[in-house]
Amino acid sequence: MEIKGLKDELAGLKNEGRYQSLKIWETGSGTWMELNGRKVLQMCSNNYLGLTNHPELKQAATEAITKYGVGSGSVRTIVGTLDIHDRLENELARFKNTEAALVFPSGFTANQGILSSILGEEDAVISDELNHASIIDGIRLTKAIRKVFKHKDMDQLEAALKESADCRRRVVVTDGVFSMDGDIAPLPDIVALCERYDAIVYVDDAHASGVLGKNGKGSADHYGLHGRIHVQVGTLSKAIGAVGGYMAGSQSLKDYLIHKARPFLFSTSQPPSVAATCLAAIQVLSFSQHLLDRMWNNTAYFRDRLKEIGFDTGISETPIIPVIIGDPARTSRFSEELLEEGVSATGIVYPTVAMDKGRIRMIVTASHTTGDLDFALDRLTEVGRRFGLV
Ligand code: PMP
């Protein structure tokens, strides 16, 4: 049974070059993956440290399935809090240097659940314009006054803080690392302003945890701001290699969210094997820096070569490296031609980014070899020449 109007809208997306069909990969997440029987170099996975295939994580998952079975059977507040969930939360709190942590079904629902719980109509939320969709949706669920400041514009942030002086709470929200440009939030400035105006600092570290700071502890550690950020959100689906999200903050915030955050209250808890996988990932990160070092060396190598070739990599400071192409249709074509050449890198187009800022968003990981990166550079140069970009 057709739903009226959907096909027309889809045709419109096709016309604008914004239509996407899902690619069906025939192998697990890794550096080289198979698509239609062909090996393709993966340059856009969030598997920053290559942990999805780490032997210690696989073993932890297998052992947890043997011990606990495959599912938890309930939401956390009924019978779905197993000792493995408790251990994971304690380890996450230790890893992030906070009093407590609380796991959510995903990073997306963590943002939705936390923002909609701590903000009411007497409050204001002040958000960077390039924050992730889950923050935007979380804010939409509240009745708080909404203010958006231009990307990393501290004057606009200060003005918004002044304008909202009468509110009960002011929550300033920012991504730690911005997911489309790969730049880092100016957290020391944000924290200083929030301290001056008695506001709450909320950082979404989805792309910073496992990436920035010692052992991947995130942007608070990167800037030496432990104890000065009220809410840190993380995901367990990117550098950590599994799935899930979490809040790291005070014990009182955790206790409050256990009573109020709807995705926590009404969604079944993580399968124990997933919690065990995440625990093993935190252990791997805590005891070794070498995967992070490799990822950062690869990042510097790849970004420097791209710039030498003549590509515009925008304002990237992290393993997220955009190659700016321009309008949506051209960006999608570039991504398709690159895939034909054996390199997978998604085209990101309007409305995710501005209409003229379509880009191929590349992510460098610890698992890429120099040979892999050279292959990607070679294929990018070939397609870039065809498009007159280099
Ligand atoms: N925040 C940011 C900045 C993200 O990039 C993402 C993932 N795209 C999320 C939150 C959501 O995380 P998850 O995939 O765990 O839902």
UniProtKB/TrEMBL annotation:
Alphabetically ordered keywords of this record: Acyltransferase, Biotin biosynthesis, Pyridoxal phosphate, Transferase
Pfam families tied to this protein: Aminotran_1_2 (PF00155)
Positions where N6-(pyridoxal phosphate)lysine occurs in the chain: 238
GO biological process: biotin biosynthetic process
Main enzyme class: transferase
Reactions accelerated catalytically: 6-carboxyhexanoyl-[ACP] + L-alanine + H(+) = (8S)-8-amino-7-oxononanoate + holo-[ACP] + CO2
Entry-linked Gene3D superfamilies: Aspartate Aminotransferase, domain 1 (3.90.1150.10), Type I PLP-dependent aspartate aminotransferase-like (Major domain) (3.40.640.10)
Residue span(s) of domain Aminotransferase class I/classII large: 39-380
Biological or metabolic pathway of the protein: Cofactor biosynthesis; biotin biosynthesis
Cofactors required: pyridoxal 5'-phosphate
EC number: 2.3.1.47
CDD domains registered for this protein in UniProt: KBL_like
A GO molecular-function descriptor: 8-amino-7-oxononanoate synthase activity
Purpose of the protein: Catalyzes the decarboxylative condensation of pimeloyl-[acyl-carrier protein] and L-alanine to produce 8-amino-7-oxononanoate (AON), [acyl-carrier protein], and carbon dioxide.
Membership in a protein family: Belongs to the class-II pyridoxal-phosphate-dependent aminotransferase family. BioF subfamily.
Subunit architecture: Homodimer.
Stated name of the protein: 8-amino-7-ketopelargonate synthase
Taxonomic path: Bacteria, Bacillati, Bacillota, Bacilli, Bacillales
